[in-house]
Design brief:
This protein is α+β, with helices and mostly antiparallel strands. It is 45% helix and 12% strand. It has helices spanning 5-14, 17-26, 40-59, 62-70, 82-95, 104-117; strands at residues 122-130, 136-144, 162-163. Strands 2-1-3 form a three-stranded antiparallel β-sheet, with helices on one face. Helix 1 (5-14) packs antiparallel against helix 2 (17-26), helix 3 packs across helix 6 and helix 5 (82-95) packs antiparallel against helix 6 (104-117). The longest helix is centred in the first third of the chain and has 20 residues, at 40-59.
C-alpha cells in the first residue's frame, strides 16, 4: 500500500532514509534530481498527439490542422513541464516510421497541441531562408506567449529564418 501524503511530509521532515526510499518507490516523491514519473494519462495524451497530429497533417491542409490545433481546449491540471513534453515528443517522432517520422512541422504542431492542452498560449511559426546553395529552405518552430523567440527549439535550428506572416492559422 503506497504511503499517504501525510506520510510523505513526515518522511521529508524526519529525513528517515527508509521512509524516503519507500516514497521514491511509490512515486509520491521523485528520487533526488529525477523528475516525477509521468502518469498513464499524461503518457497516453503525448502518444495520441504524436500519432494524430502527423496523420492530420497528411490528410488535411496544414492551415486547417493548425486552426484545429489553435482551438484545442486547455486542461492545465496535471500539466507536464514543457521541456519534458518536448523530450517525449522528440523521442516518439524520431523513432516513428513513415508519415509519423520527425519533421520540424510535425514536431512543432504536436508540441503546440500539447502546450495548448496544458494551458499555454503557443503557436506554430513558419519561416524561410536561402541556403548557401541558393535553394529556399523552410522551417517550423513553436512560439509561446511570454517567451522570447523560438520555444523548446534544439540549438540554433530557427536561426536565420524569416518569419512568414499571415496564413490564417493564428493561435
Amino acid at each position: 500500500m503506497p504511503p499517504s501524503s501525510d506520510a510523505a511530509v513526515h518522511a521529508l521532515i524526519s529525513l528517515d532514509p527508509r521512509a524516503l526510499a519507500a516514497l521514491a518507490c511509490s512515486g509520491l516523491v521523485a528520487r533526488a534530481g529525477a523528475p516525477a514519473p509521468l502518469r498513464f494519462r499524461q503518457k497516453a495524451e503525448i502518444a495520441i498527439a504524436c500519432a494524430l497530429v502527423p496523420l492530420l497533417l497528411e490528410l488535411l491542409p496544414a492551415t486547417r490542422v493548425l486552426c484545429l490545433i489553435a482551438s484545442v481546449p486547455p486542461r492545465p491540471r496535471d500539466a507536464v513541464p514543457p521541456e519534458r513534453l518536448a523530450l517525449h515528443v522528440d523521442r516518439l517522432l524520431l523513432r516513428a516510421p513513415l508519415i509519423w517520422h520527425h519533421t520540424c512541422l510535425r514536431r512543432a504542431a504536436t508540441l503546440v497541441a500539447l502546450l495548448r492542452r496544458s494551458g499555454r498560449d503557443a503557436r506554430v511559426v513558419l519561416g524561410v531562408r536561402r541556403a548557401e546553395t541558393g535553394e529556399l529552405e523552410a522551417h517550423a518552430w513553436v512560439e509561446c506567449a511570454g517567451e522570447d523567440g523560438p520555444y523548446l527549439e534544439r540549438g540554433e535550428e530557427a536561426r536565420g529564418f524569416v518569419r512568414l506572416e499571415g496564413g490564417g492559422a493564428e493561435g
